């Protein structure tokens, strides 16, 4: 068996609000620099994007471009706004699925993430018939996640619920959140970037590490289903408290409330009359079967990290991860190494950078950072030790040494 890093949910330039730089060569180049071997194509039902994928050499259902392999994937939106992530074994099955969806969509030919006038069960039926895998995208997101509209997988997928092998945690949740819900204990959790840009702080900002025997769609599917020794070994992603909707908050002034206060106020902020949006943490509390997470034996660790460029910016006090100084140092640190190697594996004494940056990387490795939770559409903030600017949440992150 071998370990491979995967980011299985991205978008192409043919999706709404996505960078025009999201083209296959740029994605392949940046994935290799990041240290991710397999990337979902995203948008594989879009005719122009699928034509571009067809130009690549294919082997065992994966498409080769330089050092990077692409797996056919697409995200679709159903009639209730719930988003679903789909993986497909080959081009013919993508074309078959597009044909099946065509009578139920007005934008299938124009938007990489199409809207389907179908419910989750109907979508799953066609995907499974095509030999694909399907599961909810960013399951806890309050606008388009499955748990924003349903209390269970069966509520959405009906009789197909027992064939849902995975859920995508998304930036809003981690293993501790999801494993408080008993129906999810048998499912594999995926952590993907949902990237709209190939920049190093977007692509593979969340990723999976799996154990497979060879490279191929079938191997990925077996790892997701945990068959024949293939399995997910590690989920890597953000702290849920960083999310824009972690806490129940006003969407206008961002004042935070408890779920009980939201009900008492009928969902309106007394300060500005803005809408109060239920936060992910409170939604999980409403759905939870367990007061504390119960991790099944097959559940891999979840490692909380943020992209290297953002760590550099945080350490040096830059407002953006895209400043010249941050990008220059990022390039220097990743010379001869991937970003994932810098963040997770490299001996810190071998890294050449300002001490503040090395100390910041070490703080993330040791789980010594704090998070000021976000809500109402405003992202949370991470603080390095001794620099908290709000009442912080202690994230209780395991250190790298706990993962063996």
Describe it.
The chain is α+β, with helices and mostly antiparallel strands and 404 residues long. It has a domain at 2-238: TIM Barrel (Alpha-Beta Barrel). It is built from 13 helices and 18 strands. The strands form five sheets. The protein has an eight-stranded mixed sheet. A three-stranded antiparallel sheet has the order 6-7-8, with helices on one face. The protein has a three-stranded antiparallel sheet with strand order 17-16-18, with no helix packed on it. A hairpin with a 2-residue loop joins β3 (58-59) and β4. α10 (308-316) crosses α13 (355-366). It is globular and about 55 Å long. The mean pLDDT is 94.
Please specify the SSE layout and strand pairing.
Layout: E1 2-7, H1 24-34, E2 38-40, H2 47-54, E3 58-59, E4 62-65, E5 68-71, E6 73-77, E7 83-87, H3 91-101, H4 120-129, E8 133-136, H5 153-157, E9 166-168, H6 175-178, E10 188-190, E11 207-212, H7 217-225, E12 231-237, E13 249-250, H8 259-264, E14 276-277, H9 280-287, E15 302-304, H10 308-316, H11 324-333, H12 339-345, H13 355-366, E16 370-372, E17 381-383, E18 393-394
Helix pairs in contact: 10-11, 10-13
Tell me briefly what this model is.
The chain is an alpha+beta fold and 404 residues long. Helix content is 27%, strand content 17%.
Structural class, from helix and strand content? alpha+beta
Unreliable spans: none
For the largest beta-sheet, the strand count, sense and barrel status come to: 8 strands, mixed
Q: Enumerate how many helices there are, as a single number.
A: 13
Task: Tell me the radius of gyration.
Answer: 21 Å
CATH architecture of the domain at 2-238: Alpha-Beta Barrel
Q: How large is the share of residues in beta strands?
A: 15-25%
CATH topology of the domain at 2-238: TIM Barrel
Euclidean distance between termini CA atoms: 17 Å
Work out the number of β strands: 18
* CATH class designation of the domain at 2-238: Alpha Beta
Main sheet strand line-up: 3-4-5-2-1-11-12-15
């Amino acid at each position: 068996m071998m370990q491979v890093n995967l980011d299985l949910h991205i978008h192409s330039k043919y999706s709404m609000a996505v960078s025009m730089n999201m083209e296959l060569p740029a994605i392949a180049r940046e994935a290799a620099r990041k240290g991710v071997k397999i990337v979902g194509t995203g948008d594989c039902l879009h005719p122009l994007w699928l034509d571009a994928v067809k130009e690549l050499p294919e082997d065992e259902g994966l498409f080769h471009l330089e050092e990077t392999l692409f797996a056919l994937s697409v995200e679709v939106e159903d009639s209730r706004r719930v988003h679903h992530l789909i993986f497909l074994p080959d081009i013919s099955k993508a074309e078959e699925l597009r044909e099946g969806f065509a009578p139920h969509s007005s934008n299938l030919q124009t938007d990489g993430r199409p809207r389907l006038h179908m419910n989750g069960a109907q979508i799953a039926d066609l995907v499974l018939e095509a030999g694909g895998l399907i599961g909810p995208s960013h399951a806890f997101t309050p606008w388009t996640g499955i748990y924003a509209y349903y209390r269970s997988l069966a509520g959405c997928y009906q009789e197909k619920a027992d064939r849902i092998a995975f859920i995508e945690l998304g930036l809003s949740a981690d293993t501790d959140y999801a494993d408080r819900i008993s129906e999810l204990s048998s499912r594999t959790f995926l952590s993907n970037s949902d990237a709209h840009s190939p920049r190093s702080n977007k692509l593979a900002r969340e990723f999976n590490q799996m154990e497979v025997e060879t490279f191929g769609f079938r191997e990925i599917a077996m790892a997701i289903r945990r068959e024949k020794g293939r399995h997910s070994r590690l989920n890597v992603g953000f702290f849920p408290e960083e999310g824009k909707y972690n806490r129940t908050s006003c969407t206008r002034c961002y004042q935070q409330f408890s779920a009980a206060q939201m009900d008492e106020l009928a969902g309106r902020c007394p300060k500005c009359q803005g809408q109060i949006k239920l936060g992910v943490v409170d939604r999980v509390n409403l759905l939870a079967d367990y007061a504390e997470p119960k991790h099944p034996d097959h559940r891999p660790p979840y490692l909380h990290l943020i992209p290297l460029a953002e760590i550099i910016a945080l350490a040096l006090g830059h407002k953006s991860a895209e400043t010249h100084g941050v990008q220059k140092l990022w390039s220097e640190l990743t010379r001869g190494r991937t970003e994932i190697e810098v963040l997770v594996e490299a001996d810190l004494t071998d890294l050449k950078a300002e001490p503040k940056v090395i100390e910041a990387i070490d703080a993330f490795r040791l789980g010594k950072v704090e998070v000021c939770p976000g809500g109402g559409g405003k992202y949370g903030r991470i603080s390095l030790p001794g620099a908290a600017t709000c009442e912080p949440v202690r994230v209780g992150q395991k250190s790298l040494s706990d993962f063996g």
